[in-house]
User: Fold these one by one.
Assistant:
Number 1:
Amino acid sequence: MSKYFKSARFFQIAVVTIFATFATVAIVSGTTTIGTNMTTEGTLTVSGKVYASSTVLVTGVSNFYNDLKVVPSYGLDTLTAGTLNIGTTTANFINFASAATVSKFLGPLNASSTLVATGASTFYGLATVTNSSTTLANFGGGTTVSGLLWGTCAVNFGTSLTHGLATTTNCIATGVTTAYKVF
């Protein structure tokens, strides 16, 4: 047996075994590919990036401690048709974009509570302000205006106007009643 340990063949086998062990450790440490489903209990901690070439399904709450970034032209959406809730549990404010970024809402914007716009607001198309009972508008904290109508009024004084003489006329316009103030 001692003759075997002293032979050159023993050292060749030892060197090849050590080299194979280090090569295996290096390959496994660099990348691990799992070809089938994997289940783990407890916390899975990853210190680098996680790449998925397919869908990642999470059945519980997901906490992101940094930005959640989406590749351009992709979106944040629900798995099936329904409501996408953002900031419904603990958020006090939701910020969309930065001050230099234009935010677009491609569908109707429905506010079920107070809508506050700080700064200039530009409306393209029809802007409708409705209340549960009437159309109301308040500009700058002044008197609330209801039933605001735009249009023309046919005025016929019937006689020529004379300097210093008061003259009255009736305004005949569709939808206008005596409750309206015309200015």
Note: Strands lie at 136-137, 145-146.
Number 2:
Amino acid sequence: MSIHKHPEHTGPLLPKMLWAAFAVVVVGGLLLGLTRQSRMVSSLNDAINSCQAEAAAEKDGLRDTYGIVTIVSNESGVTRFLSLCDTNPPLAKQIFRESITSGSKSARLIALYSAWYLAEQNQLEEQDLKAIVACIDPNKGNDEAVRKAAQRTLSDLTVLTNVADASQYEVVPSCTKEPAAEAPPNKIQTRQEKQRRTGQPGLAIRWSNAEVAYCWWQAFSPKGAWDNSLQRFVISAAAPASVPAAPDAGAATQVKGKSANPESGVPNPTPSQAKIQK
């Protein structure tokens, strides 16, 4: 009977230094993977905070060019952030929330611009709408450009379902300040449009300036609520008759012509195609 002997152990198959080097490579790779996202977020934050964003010079909030955001630099970084709204919406929402609450003027403008795209990806919540409204608040020291962009965004995210009461929604609240001599008169306009996803008739709304928008919101928002499924702030109740009109409110009129509001049916680019004017 033959007995097979196991080969004698002659030492490690790989030198200790080689094992150590291998371990360093593995650990380094893990750390790199863990920090890649944080480094990307930091890079995008730097880009949108320093892109020198501004709101278009248009002063009439009823016009399509009002509140459009323009940039001077870091276009590629801003575009990468907007693309995240499509490719990685949760991460885009994280950057949006940080930017709109504690970012620079430029970052807040870019965040406001991105809100509609995040809504298309079902990312916005009630707290996000409140952050947008806070950007219009005249008591929070907001820059004029930020207030204009926030006004446009809020308009895009608001729908009135009581179509029969359009004229009541167009009453300018008496708390609205008188406009400057060179500014357009205080006005509110509505337009009948199909609601997002449901296809039911509804009303979009626009305000001639941020002061009108803020006062109107204080009067009418208690009648509505944020709808997570529609990704819109929906006001279903009739406009309260108790809201007093401003002395110079003037006759309410319907919006004419095409609107930049996405609900109007005018096609919008996907986030990856979106390009802020430069």
Note: The chain has a mean pLDDT of 82.
